[in-house]
Specification:
The protein has 2 helices and no strands. It has 69 residues and is mostly helical. The chain has one domain.
Length: 69
C-alpha cells in the first residue's frame, strides 16, 4: 500500500503504530461469546419465521370461516 485516504495520516505515521490485541485466551472467549450470540439470533430468526407462518395460517382459517358462514 502506498498511502491512505485520510488526510494528515500518512503511511510513515502509522507504519510503526502499535495495535494492542487481547491475549489469545481472551480472543477465544470473545469468539465463543459471539458464536453463542449468533446461534441465539439464528434461533430467534427461525422462531419469527415459524410464527409468521402460523399467523398466515390463522388468518387464512379466519378468512375461510368468515366467508363460509
Amino acid at each position: 500500500m502506498a498511502g491512505v485516504a485520510i488526510t494528515r495520516v500518512t503511511l510513515a505515521k502509522i507504519i510503526n503504530a502499535t495495535i494492542p490485541l487481547p491475549l489469545l485466551a481472551e480472543q477465544q472467549a470473545i469468539v465463543e461469546r459471539v458464536d453463542r450470540l449468533l446461534n441465539h439470533i439464528n434461533a430467534l430468526e427461525q422462531q419469527v419465521t415459524e410464527r409468521k407462518h402460523h399467523a398466515e395460517q390463522l388468518m387464512q382459517a379466519v378468512l375461510k370461516e368468515a366467508f363460509a358462514g
